[in-house]
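[job 4471] stage=fold_predict status=RUNNING
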Amino acid sequence: MYDLVIIGAGPAGLTAGLYAGRMRLKTLLLEKMSLGGQVLLTPTLENFPGFAGGVATEKLISSMRKQIEELGVEIKFDEVTKVMGDAEFKIYAREAEYAAKTLIIATGARPKPLGVPGEDRLVGRGVSYCATCDGPLFKDKDILVIGGGDRATEEAIFLSSYAQRVNIIHRRQSLRASKILEEKAQQNAKINFILETVVEEILGRDRVEAVKIKNVKSGSMSELSCQGVFIFVGIEPNTAFVKNQLNIDAAGFIMTQEDLTTSQEGIFACGDCRKKSLYQVITACAEGAVAAHSAHKYLLKR
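[job 4471] inference complete, writing C-alpha cells
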C-alpha cells in the first residue's frame, strides 16, 4: 500500500514526485514509456526559467529524475489500464496491480491527428508528429509544417536545419505563436508562410508526394508538392483509463478545482491531461507541486 501513486512521469508527474518525496510520503511513480513524456519531442526548452539560451530537454528530465530518486521515490515502468476504488484505490496495469491511499493523474497528452484522407496511410512514410524524431530523414527535402502555435513554429525552425524548404500552413490570418518565435521564423530564409489555408488531403502512393490545400477565404483548391508533412495541431489527453471514474470534458480533459482535486475524492490531476488555459512545461511543474501538496493535506485528514 502506497501513500501516493503518481500515474505519468512528464514534468508534472516528476515535480509531484519531488514534492511528495520531500513530504516523506511512500510514493510510486508509474510511467508506461520513458520519463519526460511529450516534452521529449522538443530537444531544447527556451522558456524554462533560469536557463538563459535554453536547456536541453533530456538534461532537465535527467536532473529531475535524480532529484526524486535521491528522496526515495520509487519508479516503475508499467501502463495503467484501469483505476478503481474510493477510500483506497486499486490501480490495474499491464504488469502488476498496485494499491494506494491517494492518486495523482499526470498522464499528459499526445499529438492530435489532422484527420484528413491519406494521413493514416502515410504515417511513417512522410507523415510525422515529431520533428526531433524524423527531421534528419528529410535532408534537402521540401516539407510542410501544419499548425500555427508555439510547437509548430519551434518545430519549423528546427526542421529548417535539415530541409531545403519549410512551408508553414495555418488556417488563420496570423500565427498563434509567441512573437519571439514568430520573428525567428520570419527571419529564416528557408521558411515560408501559407496562411488562411487548410490541408484537405495528403497525397502519395508509397510516400508523401504532395498535399491538396484550400484557401479558406476564396475556397480555391490547389496542390503543393512536398516530401514530408509534420502535423502540430493540438493535443489529445491520455485519460481513457479514467473516463468512467472522473468528470472529464467532451475533449477528454480532466476537470479539476483550483487545488487540483477531481470529481473523485482522493484523486488529483495535473499537467496536460487536465482542462486549463495554458499548456506549458512551467505550468505542468507548478501543478505537480500543487497536486502533491493537496494529496498530502488529504492524507493528513484521513
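[job 4471] summary: The chain has six helices and 19 strands.
[job 4471] exit 0
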